[in-house]
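Whiteboard transcription, Tuesday session. T.W. wrote the C-alpha cells on the left side:
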C-alpha cells in the first residue's frame, strides 16, 4: 500500500498528523481511518465475488488484474507460440548498429562489413561508399535541395 512512500515522507506525514489532529485525538483518527480502509477493502472483495458469481463457473479463475491492458498483452504474448520467430528476429536485429552503418555511409566514412550480404539478387549496395578518386573539387551546390 505504501510502497512508493519513502521513510522521510512517512516521517513528514506523521509529524503533520500530530500537528493537525494533536496527540490526544491522533489514536482515534488512526482507528477511524483504518476502519474505513478495511470497509473499502471488504466492499471491493464482495463486489469482485459478486461479479465472479454472475459471470458463471467458466470465469471462476478470472483475475481482475487481467483487465489491465499491459498485463493482458503480456500474458497473450507469453502464451502465443507463433511469435517465437518474431522474438528470434527481434533478438538478432540491432537497430543502433544499423543506424550507425547508415550514418557512416551517408557521411562517407568507412564502416565495418555488414553481417548481411552486401548484394541482394545481384543489385549493388547503394549505401556502401563508392571508391571514387578524390579530385579535390567540391560537388555542385543545389539550392533547391537545401
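and on the right, the sequence the group agreed on:
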Amino acid at each position: 500500500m505504501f510502497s512508493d512512500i519513502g521513510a522521510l515522507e512517512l516521517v513528514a506525514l506523521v509529524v503533520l498528523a500530530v500537528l493537525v489532529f494533536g496527540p490526544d485525538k491522533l489514536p482515534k483518527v488512526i482507528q477511524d481511518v483504518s476502519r474505513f480502509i478495511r470497509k473499502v477493502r471488504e466492499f471491493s472483495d464482495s463486489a469482485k465475488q459478486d461479479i465472479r458469481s454472475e459471470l458463471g463457473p467458466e470465469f471462476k479463475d478470472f483475475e481482475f488484474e487481467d483487465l489491465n491492458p499491459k498485463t493482458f498483452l503480456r500474458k497473450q504474448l507469453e502464451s502465443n507460440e507463433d511469435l517465437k520467430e518474431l522474438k528470434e528476429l527481434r533478438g538478432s536485429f540491432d537497430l543502433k548498429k544499423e543506424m550507425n552503418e547508415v550514418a557512416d555511409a551517408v557521411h562517407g566514412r568507412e564502416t565495418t562489413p555488414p553481417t548481411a550480404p552486401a548484394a541482394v539478387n545481384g543489385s549493388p549496395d547503394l549505401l556502401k561508399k563508392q571508391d571514387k578518386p578524390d579530385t579535390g573539387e567540391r560537388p555542385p551546390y543545389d539550392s533547391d535541395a537545401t
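Someone added at the bottom: Residues 7-55 form the longest helix (49 residues).
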